[in-house]
Design a protein that fits this description.
homodimer; about 425 residues; alpha/beta; Carbamate kinase; eight-stranded mixed sheet; four-stranded mixed sheet; 20 strands; about 35% helix; about 25% strand
């Protein structure tokens, strides 16, 4: 008997059938003797439909009003889910972000959670009810206005609530079976991971793995809260995201846990930059002032004859036009020669806590890419990750080669499942 | 310069075009120097669509959750309307019923307003913003749960807010030009009324006129708040609902203000009821206990030979099956002979403060119905209303005949418009 927070995404509750299926799963958890708090996203395409309506009345909708509009989506799904549970004879009460005590900053569209004060949720649990909470939304501490949390908001709501309630586990239900050693659409032999550490998951999420959002993993790590990522369409054990790989597994732990790839970035090269102190800082300050996140940076060794160097960096494709315009604006001041913009790049990342104790990883990685005919254009590393930039058209070839080289390919013996008892 | 509360119904904001049209009208009012508070209903068929979703997941949805679900409708329309206003360069802030301080009883689905504490609305007005408020919803005083007000809820929200804000007028925008002397679909010569008193409007609403709901008129009368019913599709002056007809109009005031008709009622006759003290009370107590509203009641003079009488009453058709089942259950106890159920009846009502001083109204009314071949089955009167029950198939014939007999037919000189200045 424990307290379980479950989060269901929009695709799991896309229609009445989905809502009923999810209701049955929730009731089964309750019947197994647990207290259950559920965080739910808006149904299917609701958010997109609301955004389209907003666009029809205003090209630049006010942030406060856009948040008011979008939060209607979870209001609908949570009330329907509570009704569907009620229809099975169990009591469920739905709560908006505000009612659930999700207190945020007042930055509309991407508010951050400041605190969770789940008094009403605890009351509902005490009454024996299942609590259904709207994901993705909260109330601003200063203005008492409705806010939304932006990308990954519902996962973050679930983890934040689980932490505030001191839950035993936060289950994130999705339409895949868990976290895989690589994207199964690219690598059919990809294996479902039994466990992955917070650090690994953070690196994977930052490297393009879509299954969990960075913010929610950061939150879970801070509170040492186990996340169980699993499918809402099956009863299969999924992937546990935890502090450390379980001891029994340590011996057989692969060096590399997962391979992520990302096609959403572009590369900008600033050519012929005067190699003087402060010039690079000036460039990246301008980019940062425009609130553009950059990822990898490489500065070539300066050519002694000219005193000029090239600086390359990657950034989301969606920010490409914005960033190049910005750089052209400061070209006179900085005095570089030209800008090259390249949106045909892909990023390939190896992630694994095991690489700390295995110094040969980089060599094996580069060798396998070379054998596969993949040219490396940029390199960046952390303690448990190596990322390279290559041609976008070479990306999937590279993922497959690395997956095989690090012996991640499934052997068909995946029946052994990590129980995760007591977490 | 005054404070104006405007209410727009679902058909006025059914799509992006409607929202923009309404936004322009609101902005025009603001530009004319007024402070503006807007109450808005859910867009077009939203409420019906949400009800259909609810039915798909639960045949008997929980009241709290159904209210949570339905209130998403106004959340969507109010946010979009605020955006549409924002797009014209004016500031608008939307508020849920709870944020607007609409405090209600906790009867889900048909909560009553207990109090309105519009602090946030006043703040918005002070900042120079237009306040958009969700109609039809509030928050329960006891449980702090979201509630809905039931039929006529948005009109009631508007009037209650206008009263709490001490507004100069509450404008109810609809898809017709105002209150007419009869339903223009039945009587093409029906005239738009310049003014109608609260009492008359209450009688008209209770007699089947759909344009304003009973509750909202009751609220306005209690606070002596002028209502201006008008079309959102034109700039025509509509109908003012006020305490008294203006003095200048008193001389030319027609005896009858309006004729209402209603096809939604059925007639039940309890045949052969023992004419003893307490028997009628027992019958109507049983009906009242089942929360069924009855309208007209007629008890025949008892036949001396048998000591038996017949009791007839009318009630909403939707309650017919319920009521007959109930009566059959107490047949043994009461000892009546049989029940006759008739849902082919229509109700025709004459309403007018003028009939107080004109004793011949009843005679003129009955004579014109007789001339038109309409047989009267039941009669009920109040100080300013006469209602009769006839065959449903005779109803429209009767409405036309009465409209002509009381000289209500339009003469085509409707250009004179009551200004209502200073109200």
């Amino acid at each position: 008997m424990g307290l379980i927070v479950q989060k269901y995404g929009g695709s799991s509750v896309a229609d009445a059938e989905g809502l009923k299926r999810v209701a049955n799963r929730i009731v089964a958890t309750k019947k197994a003797g647990h207290q259950v708090v559920v965080v739910v996203s808006a149904m299917g395409d609701t958010t997109d439909e609301l955004l389209e309506l907003a666009e029809q009345v205003s090209p630049m909708p006010n942030g406060r009003e856009l948040d008011m509009l979008l939060t209607a989506g979870e209001r609908i799904s949570m009330a329907l889910l509570a009704m569907a549970i009620g229809n099975t004879g169990h009591e469920a009460q739905s709560f908006t972000g505000s009612q659930a005590g999700v207190i945020t900053t007042s930055t509309h569209g991407r508010a951050r959670i400041i605190d969770v004060a789940p008094g009403r949720i605890l009351d509902a649990l005490k009454e024996g009810a299942i609590a259904i909470v709207a994901g993705f939304q909260g109330i601003s501490q200063d203005t008492k206005d409705v806010t939304t949390l932006g990308r990954g908001g519902s996962d973050t709501t679930a983890v934040a609530l689980a932490a505030a309630l001191d839950a035993d586990v936060c289950e994130i239900y999705t339409d895949v079976d868990g976290v895989f050693s690589a994207d199964p659409r690219v690598v059919p032999a990809a294996r479902k991971l039994k466990t992955v550490t917070y650090e690994e998951m953070l690196e994977l999420a930052a490297s393009g793995a879509k299954v969990l959002h960075l913010r929610c993993v950061e939150y879970a790590r801070r509170y040492n809260l186990p996340i169980h990522v699993r499918s809402s369409f099956s009863n299969n054990e999924g992937t546990w995201v935890v502090k450390d790989h379980p001891e029994g597994d340590a011996m057989e732990q692969a060096i590399i846990s997962g391979i992520a790839h990302d096609k959403s970035e572009a590369k900008i090269t600033v050519v012929g930059v005067p190699d003087r102190t402060g010039i690079a800082a000036r460039i990246f300050q301008a980019i940062a002032d425009a609130d553009i996140n950059i990822d990898m940076i490489v500065q070539n060794v300066s050519a002694a004859a000219t005193g000029l160097t090239d600086i390359s960096f990657t950034l989301p494709k969606s920010e490409g036009a914005n960033a190049t315009a910005l750089l052209h604006k400061i070209q006179g001041e900085i005095g570089f020669q030209s800008i090259q913009y390249d949106d045909q790049v892909g990023k390939l990342s190896l992630v694994g806590a095991g690489m700390r104790s295995h110094p040969g990883v980089t060599a094996t990685f580069f060798a396998c890419l070379a054998d596969a005919g993949v040219n490396i254009e940029m390199i960046s590393t952390s303690e448990i990750r190596i990322s390279v930039i290559c041609r976008e058209s070479d990306l999937e070839k590279g993922v497959k080669a690395a997956h095989t080289a690090f012996e991640l390919d499934s052997t068909g013996e995946e029946a052994v499942v990590y129980g995760g008892t007591g977490r």
